[in-house]
Structure formats: structure tokens, C-alpha cells
Amino acid sequence: MMKLSNLLENFKDGKDVLVRLESGDVFVLYDFEIVDESIYDRDDYVLSTMREVIRSEFNYRDGTKLEFTLGDIADLIDPITRVSYLKAD
Fold first, then answer.
1. 21-32 pLDDT, tens per residue?
2. pLDDT tens, 59-85?
3. What is the DSSP string of 9-40?
4. Model's pTM, two decimal places?
5. Most Cβ neighbours (<10 Å): which of 24, 63, 64, 70?
6. How far apart are CA 39 and CA 26, in angstroms?
7. What does each C-alpha distance from 30 to 40, 44, 75, 89 come to in angstroms?
């Protein structure tokens, strides 16, 4: 999981990434950061900012902070080039 957390944190600030979660929700997110382990006593929570909702049963506004775990991530894709950063099995 460390490789994935490093990948997320190394995206440039403001870099849009299409994220598909295991739940089937799909978002364009940016500004990823790993939540401090002391908050949840876990080191796999990610906080990012919503740019666009592609598919979700919930309504989110642009700029909403979204929190999820590294294990929730199914795909990471560049929304412009469609280059895949990650394809979880």
C-alpha cells in the first residue's frame, strides 16, 4: 500500500485524476494527501478534493473534501489522456 500512497501524494497540486472506487463511484479528484495516522490509528486514509462527480448515488459539490481508504481505490486514470496510473486486481 505504500506505493499507492506515494503515487497519490506525488501528484502535483491541482492535478486532476479520475478515481473509480470499489463501490462503483467515479470522481475526478485532485490534491491528494494521506490523513495523519494519529487521527484514525490507521495509515491508509486519503483526503482529496472533488472536481467532478462522474457517477455516485450521492451529490457532492465541486471543492468538497472526500475521504476514503487506499483499499477503496479500484482505478486511477488521467482524465485527459486516459492513461492508467493503477489497475487494481
1. 999 999 999 999
2. 999 999 999 999 999 999 999 999 999
3. HHSPTT--EEEEETTS-EEEEEEEEEPPHHHH
4. 0.89
5. 70
6. 26
7. 22, 17, 14, 23
What is the enclosing helix (H) or strand (E) of 77?
Answer: strand 73-77
Average pLDDT, the chain: 92
If you search the block for the grid coordinates 455516485, which residue do you land on? 56
Residue pointed to by grid coordinates 457532492:
60
28 touches 11 (CB < 8 A): no
The three cell numbers locating residue 37: 495516522
